[in-house]
Specification:
Length: 134
Protein backbone atom coordinates (compact mmCIF):
# COMPACT_ATOMS: atom_id res chain seq x y z
CA UNK A 1 0.00 0.00 0.00
CA UNK A 2 1.35 3.43 -0.94
CA UNK A 3 1.95 5.88 1.88
CA UNK A 4 0.42 9.30 1.62
CA UNK A 5 2.73 12.06 2.86
CA UNK A 6 0.97 15.28 3.78
CA UNK A 7 2.98 18.20 5.08
CA UNK A 8 1.31 20.81 7.20
CA UNK A 9 1.00 24.36 5.94
CA UNK A 10 3.33 25.45 8.77
CA UNK A 11 6.07 23.14 7.52
CA UNK A 12 5.59 24.29 3.95
CA UNK A 13 5.65 27.92 5.05
CA UNK A 14 8.73 27.24 7.12
CA UNK A 15 10.52 25.64 4.16
CA UNK A 16 9.49 28.55 1.97
CA UNK A 17 10.82 31.01 4.56
CA UNK A 18 14.10 29.10 4.78
CA UNK A 19 14.50 29.17 1.01
CA UNK A 20 13.83 32.93 0.95
CA UNK A 21 16.29 33.43 3.80
CA UNK A 22 18.90 31.27 2.04
CA UNK A 23 18.48 33.25 -1.17
CA UNK A 24 18.71 36.57 0.69
CA UNK A 25 21.92 35.45 2.42
CA UNK A 26 23.32 34.39 -0.96
CA UNK A 27 22.58 37.84 -2.40
CA UNK A 28 23.95 39.61 0.67
CA UNK A 29 27.16 37.57 0.68
CA UNK A 30 27.72 38.38 -3.00
CA UNK A 31 27.33 42.08 -2.20
CA UNK A 32 29.79 41.78 0.70
CA UNK A 33 32.35 40.02 -1.50
CA UNK A 34 31.93 42.67 -4.20
CA UNK A 35 32.61 45.39 -1.62
CA UNK A 36 35.60 43.54 -0.13
CA UNK A 37 37.13 42.96 -3.56
CA UNK A 38 37.02 46.71 -4.22
CA UNK A 39 38.69 47.53 -0.91
CA UNK A 40 42.31 48.71 -1.06
CA UNK A 41 43.00 46.79 2.16
CA UNK A 42 44.67 43.40 2.00
CA UNK A 43 43.62 40.90 3.06
CA UNK A 44 40.21 42.53 2.98
CA UNK A 45 38.50 39.66 4.80
CA UNK A 46 40.90 40.10 7.73
CA UNK A 47 40.17 43.82 7.76
CA UNK A 48 36.44 43.15 7.82
CA UNK A 49 36.88 40.62 10.64
CA UNK A 50 39.04 42.91 12.75
CA UNK A 51 36.82 45.93 12.19
CA UNK A 52 33.82 43.83 13.20
CA UNK A 53 35.64 43.03 16.47
CA UNK A 54 36.46 46.72 17.01
CA UNK A 55 32.88 47.76 16.29
CA UNK A 56 31.43 45.08 18.57
CA UNK A 57 33.65 46.24 21.45
CA UNK A 58 32.83 49.88 20.71
CA UNK A 59 29.08 49.24 20.70
CA UNK A 60 29.03 46.98 23.77
CA UNK A 61 31.26 49.07 26.01
CA UNK A 62 29.55 52.46 25.78
CA UNK A 63 29.33 53.87 29.28
CA UNK A 64 29.40 51.92 32.51
CA UNK A 65 27.34 48.75 32.37
CA UNK A 66 26.75 46.04 34.88
CA UNK A 67 29.39 43.30 34.63
CA UNK A 68 31.76 45.41 32.50
CA UNK A 69 34.87 46.54 34.30
CA UNK A 70 35.93 48.78 31.42
CA UNK A 71 34.34 51.07 28.87
CA UNK A 72 34.95 53.20 25.79
CA UNK A 73 35.53 56.73 27.10
CA UNK A 74 32.84 59.29 26.42
CA UNK A 75 33.56 61.30 23.28
CA UNK A 76 35.64 58.61 21.56
CA UNK A 77 34.19 57.84 18.14
CA UNK A 78 34.36 54.69 16.10
CA UNK A 79 36.00 56.73 13.32
CA UNK A 80 38.79 57.83 15.68
CA UNK A 81 39.43 54.21 16.61
CA UNK A 82 39.43 53.16 12.95
CA UNK A 83 41.83 55.97 11.98
CA UNK A 84 44.29 54.88 14.68
CA UNK A 85 43.88 51.23 13.67
CA UNK A 86 44.66 52.24 10.07
CA UNK A 87 47.93 53.75 11.28
CA UNK A 88 48.84 50.84 13.58
CA UNK A 89 47.52 47.78 11.76
CA UNK A 90 50.85 46.56 10.38
CA UNK A 91 52.50 46.68 13.79
CA UNK A 92 49.84 44.40 15.31
CA UNK A 93 50.98 41.41 13.27
CA UNK A 94 47.49 40.06 12.68
CA UNK A 95 46.87 37.46 10.00
CA UNK A 96 44.23 34.98 8.95
CA UNK A 97 46.08 32.18 10.75
CA UNK A 98 45.15 33.70 14.09
CA UNK A 99 41.98 32.42 15.64
CA UNK A 100 39.14 34.55 16.89
CA UNK A 101 40.37 34.55 20.49
CA UNK A 102 43.83 35.80 19.50
CA UNK A 103 42.40 38.55 17.30
CA UNK A 104 39.91 39.60 19.99
CA UNK A 105 42.61 39.69 22.68
CA UNK A 106 45.05 41.57 20.44
CA UNK A 107 42.43 44.19 19.55
CA UNK A 108 41.33 44.61 23.17
CA UNK A 109 44.95 45.06 24.28
CA UNK A 110 45.55 47.56 21.46
CA UNK A 111 42.40 49.49 22.40
CA UNK A 112 43.55 49.60 26.04
CA UNK A 113 47.05 50.79 25.08
CA UNK A 114 45.46 53.62 23.09
CA UNK A 115 42.91 54.53 25.77
CA UNK A 116 39.97 53.48 23.61
CA UNK A 117 39.01 50.97 26.30
CA UNK A 118 39.64 52.07 29.88
CA UNK A 119 39.11 50.54 33.30
CA UNK A 120 36.18 51.80 35.30
CA UNK A 121 37.08 53.42 38.57
CA UNK A 122 34.07 51.90 40.28
CA UNK A 123 34.34 48.19 39.83
CA UNK A 124 32.91 47.34 43.24
CA UNK A 125 30.39 45.08 41.54
CA UNK A 126 33.32 42.70 40.97
CA UNK A 127 33.69 42.17 44.71
CA UNK A 128 30.00 41.47 45.04
CA UNK A 129 30.07 39.02 42.15
CA UNK A 130 33.03 37.12 43.64
CA UNK A 131 31.94 37.06 47.29
CA UNK A 132 29.78 34.08 48.16
CA UNK A 133 26.39 35.01 49.55
CA UNK A 134 25.76 33.96 53.11
Amino acid sequence: MDKIHIESLDVLKSKSDLIKQRDQVFDDMNKVIDILQKSPCFPSLLWAWVFDVIREIYENYQGPQEFNDEMVPEGVTLKQIFDKFWDDCDSLGLNMDHGGEVIDETIRDWMRENDFLVALEDDSWLDEAVEPSV
